[in-house]
Every structure is written in C-alpha cells, then in structure tokens.
Amino acid sequence: MNIKTNRAIGVFDSGIGGLTVVRSLMEQLPFENIIYFGDTARVPYGIKSVETINRYAAQITEFLIKKDVKLLIVACNTMAAVAHQTIADLSDVPVLEVIDASARIAIKNTRTKSIGVIGTPATINSNAYARAIHLLDKKAKVFSQACPLFVPLVEEGWFDHPATKLIAQEYLKSVIAEQVDSLVLGCTHYPLLKPLLQDIMGKEVNLIDSAEAMAKTASDLINKQKIGNKKNSSPDYVFYVSDLPYRFQTIGERFLGRTLGRVELVSF
Ligand code: DGL
What is the pLDDT of residues 122-148, one digit of tens each? Predict the structure, then answer.
C-alpha cells in the first residue's frame, strides 16, 4: 500500500479519555500529525449495548477515513472490545486497538501469570481482554472487574478524592484476593488514577497503562512499515468533538497534560 507519510494518524474515542492515548502518542511519535474524534455527545459508551456501540463506531470510522488518515487507532477500550471487526471492515488503512497492545505488555511482564483487568461494563462483559491474553498464553489466569464509577469520577477530576479511594478499594477487593501480579488499566480514563490504584494494589503489582501500550504498538508499526512522517517540523493536531467543545478543551487539557489546539464541532 502506498501511504503518504505526512497523512495524519486518526485516533478515536467515545469522548475525552482517548486523550491519554494521544498524550502517549505525542511523547513517543513527536512528529506525527494527529486527527482526533471524541464523541462527547454520546459518551459514555461503556454502559451501552453492543449494537449501539457498533453503530457509533461505524460512523466515526467513516468520518476519519474521509479525512484521509494513514492509520486508525481505536483508543477507546469499549469500542475495541465490541466493535473492532466493524471498524476493520470499514477501513482501508491499518487499524490498531488498545486491547491487543495491552495484552501483549501484560504477558511480557507477568511473572506469576495471574493478571487482573479492570474496565467498563461493556469491556468486561465482552471478555475481550481475557480472549486476547489467552491467545498469547493459554496458561495465564485472568481476573476481571468492571468499574463503572471510575469514568465519571475521573471526569470530575477526583483523582485522589477519598470517595474515589473508597470506591476503588471496593472494586479492587476481588482482584487483590486473587493475588494478581499485574493489573491492566483497560479504560482510557484509568491512567489518571494510577497513583491511587498503585497505592491500593501495592507497589509490587505492575499496572499496565493501555495508553502507553497503544503508543508503543503504533510506533513499532510506523517504523516497521516506514510510514513515519518525514517532515521533522512541529506537527498539526486537530480535535473534533460532537458536543461541548469548550468542556472538552478545559477537561482535555488535564488528560493531555498540555494546552489543546484546534477543537471543532461536528455532527453526524
Ligand atoms: N473510552 C471508554 C473506554 O476506554 C471509557 C468512557 C466510556 O464509557 O465511553 O472504555
């Protein structure tokens, strides 16, 4: 496939959380142009049905393909878990998604093969993480826990609030009891809770940040296929949202760790 290297990477998410993936991409691939779509009008996806998530994912894929991206990154764990096939079928460029990327890192790093996974209800109910991990190692044991309250708590900015700590202790009880040595943070929002989760899980447990894992996989693919942007000048970042661009801008800067550039409103 002939891919013009200055075409952007298309990153998409159900809302704002995918900016944790963009942040890692900006760090690991500093010259790549990025077009981001966050479905802020319809977030959260994690508590919606498989049919609805697939319908939304198809619309976003078509939107980004029209923007002539060279690679698609499904930053949203929920979409990756239940709509990966729909997205891949509609795309004529490579599609990378967070679940496979995180499963690889989990298997590479685990010593005891006892792995915890946390995510939205849709992600956990789909069993996609357990399947991806077992494809890499049949002997691995996977213990999953849905944490539906984490997304609103993170959007509220309550990263180390006592209420968040209490809820996290409750959610994590079962994975702690299984003595996992790794915990996959299987949702875009959870990297922001890392210090709190590390505290509850204990220092010896390895927290796997799906955003970092995703950026590493993207960087490997770009190098392997030699499709990295040849222009070493400052890249172009464009952010599209389906509602409330101003809220996206303010909260987004917390996720991104820097000021957000152009935010544009689109509707399907
Ligand atoms: N982006 C979603 C995920 O990673 C979290 C937010 C939502 O539920 O839409 O699973």
Answer: 999 999 999 999 999 999 999 999 999
**pTM of this structure:** 0.94
DSSP calls for 136-191: H-TT-EEEEEE-TTHHHHHHTT-TT-HHHHHHHHHHHHHHHHTT-SEEEEESTTGG
- Residue 66's domain comprises 3-97+212-265
Residues 106 and 178 occupy one common structural domain: yes
Count of domains observed in the chain = 2
Residues 16, 90: one domain? yes
CA 119 / ligand 1 centre spacing (Å): 8
Residues in the ligand 1 pocket, defined by CB under 6 Å: 13-15, 17, 43-46, 76-78, 119-120, 123, 151, 187-189
Site to probe by mutation for ligand 1, drawn from 13, 19, 60, 255 as the one with most ligand atoms within 8 Å of Cβ, is 13
Say whether both 195 and 120 belong to one domain.
Answer: yes
